Batch of 2 targets.
Target 1
Amino acid sequence: MDLYRKLKEKTYIIAEMSANHAGSITLAKEIIHAAKESGADCIKIQTYTPDTLTIDCDSSYFHIDNGTWGGENLYHLYSQAYTPWEWQAELKEEADKCGIDFFSTPFDNSAVDFLEEIGIEFYKIASFELIDIPLIEYVASKGKPIIMSTGMSTLAEIDEAVTAVYKNGNPQLALLRCASAYPAITDEMNLKTMQNMEVTFGVPVGLSDHSMGSIGAVTAVAMGAKIIEKHFCIDRTIKNPDASFSMNPLEFKKMVSDIRQAEKAIGKIQYGTMKQEMDNIVFRRSIFSVADIKKGEKLTKENIRIIRPGYGIKPKYYSEILGQIALKDIPRGTPLQFNMIGGEE
């Protein structure tokens, strides 16, 4: 996959399935089709098991105290949320059938090996794994495009991760601004950081958006984002760990429409009259007679003015033609033309 080519064509919009399949492969396939119908360019899953992310331990270290998953144990949470590996080749086939890109976030080397076996064409690095340099180096060694989220990361940590990709000879990298809160709030999105990452690292940038609504995503596109990632579900009433901050198909479709309209609004650099303005160009100002002017009479401030519409001599010539002589009778309301007037007496 030529990721950079895709990013030059339009904003690349990713629907993140995550745990929204709620343990049903049938629902997972439905999500793939709904994402395609809602305008997503890509469906993303995650490749891990509870044992590749953590250990089954009930000590306080492994408990979540606050937020959406407050009170949960990590191992139990991941047991609910993970996408079974035996589904993933079948889900990729389903995505291929309906014409939507498919990729995954691996969380350890065994996941990378598995994804290589099923033919994944590019990879995601999650914000929480950005500091896992050995994992990043292993992913980069596969020579495939990488999209990396940067939630919680310092500039130095991002630099280390980017270096890890490049030193493995992998040139295709994109970075996503991300607030690793679930849900995130737009007040702390700080999209200027996204722009700074583009300047600092010289790579395409985008937004992994966990906030509710689409204002962050649309604003990011207006500020130069080439990738938008949003969690996607069929219905937030289907209970799973990610439902509460995921977009349903109608919301996602509206966001895609707004993004595509924002792209058109951004447009290109163009000065001069645009096609939509052609009918109105005549309502610019020009010089008109505002009184009957007889042949041989001087043009004065009393008998000519700069007014709308724009059928006469341009306003910039006003001072030059004051005092000139009418070469013919000029009725009131006539747009002045140079062939109607001559030099001073």
Target 2
Amino acid sequence: MNRFPDEPTREAEAVMREFGIESLSSSQVSRAAKLLDDELAAWRNRPLGEVKYLILDTRYEKMRHGGIVRDGEEDRKMIRGIIFPTNVLSAVGIGPDERRRVLGVSVALSEAEVHWRAFLESLQARGLRGVEYIVSDDHAGLRAARRAVFGGATWQRCQFHLARNAVHHAPNLAIRKRIGAELREIWNVASLAKAETALAELVADYRDTAPALAAWLEENVPEGLAVFTLPKHHRRRMRTSNPMERSVQQELKRRTVKVRVFPNEAALERPVSAVLVEIDDKWAADTKAYIKWECQDA
């Protein structure tokens, strides 16, 4: 079975070679790809269960559509007036066993609500339940999809990305240099009430000197304070999506950067799924809890 109908066999072989599979004939490439695809599809569709905390993220990859490279990370190509970046949507959850698990992955042409919603609904269809808390960046489309599928869950906007966004809204170099530290002071206080008070004071400080920044802080930073509703011992791990970014996204980047441009969706989905299986197996074998549920002191 040819998994690469739109590209020459040599491109499929090149992709597999980058992941350590070499010296295969075209028929062997097709058979190996089919066997691997079946196993990875079974993993992507495996039943899920209870997950209390959910981390969502996306990264971008280069993939060919209709013979033209569209890049989701740099210099995106526009065709027929519509931009189609290639997004790899992924989800990590922490369940009753206190371990992180990779729950799923989906290759989508954009971060539009329709794609995020389809991905989240697929997790539900596989049995995902019990989600109380979600952490992610404020990706386009994810907000609406999250509300539609997990409307009862508390949402935490990633504090790291919030700080980075604040830098972009700072009007001068002096403020850009200090705004991150000022936000960290807010996030490191002991309670939600103290964080809200500190934020109000920061907004007031910038009201006259940087009114646009003050308005942005007032509107956006409260979305990064939901973590204060969690037990104290859970907050450090669940206030950003960085643990997922370091463990998952950087490993995906390390492995996929060798390919540069994927010939089609199947060629991208295959290695990404394989990497996530490795990460999931490693986490499952870890004897150390990622979140200890008995640590419930506020």
